[in-house]
Amino acid sequence: xxxxxxxxxxxxxxxxxxxxxxxxxxxxxxxxxxxxxxxxxxxxxxxxxxxxxxxxxxxxxxxxxxxxxxxxxxxxxxxxxxxxxxxxxxxxxxxxxxxxxxxxxxxxxxxxxxxxxxxxxxxxxxxxxxxxxxxxxxxxxxxxxxxxxxxxxxxxxxxxxxxxxxxxxxxxxxxxxxxxxxxxxxxxxxxxxxxxxxxxxxxxxxxxxxxxxxxxxxxxxxxxxxxxxxxxxxxx
Length: 236
Description:
Blueprint: H1 8-19, E1 36-43, E2 64-65, E3 68-69, E4 71-74, E5 81-82, H2 83-86, E6 93-103, E7 107-116, E8 119-123, E9 126-131, E10 142-148, E11 151-161, E12 167-173, E13 184-185, H3 193-196, H4 204-228
């Protein structure tokens, strides 16, 4: 059996993400958990204020920004996003996650958050929660009250890892703190197409960042191949 190199896999998934447009995650049966995300990582360091991203930053599968390529990831049945499974070779670092969700009506809602380890949550470009801690994941460890208008919103989550397990979960509850299922998706919804710049040509800076990323990944892949394949002179 041929196994895909961990260096090749992100590039393959990024290409697939660009070619496929998924429908919003089903609004029923999620227990209020937001399950569909796009993730970027692992980034070096365990600071929750790095990288410094603009308030209008949006991410979607296939985007190359913030130091890497953004890939789709799904939460487990109980709502936990297994980041250690996504990045098994990382001993520590930071992951960025992004999703879009739709509030059914104007009102006060609650975001329930669980994380291993530290976590920061930005809603529509504004920081609403920060816990710089080392802890094991448990659902609903933190609760944040937020005011939402009816319609689509964007959520950016940063999660640090100091070793061991690495995970996060987010779910939405109403003002009475009862979990509610809402449409959500990793892909850019129609109201955010302009913000996501899906119809705009890539800038010189974006092309340069993509070129740098591909060059680094190509060098790492070449090093992996050299380590995995013995030189011909050593082959009997």
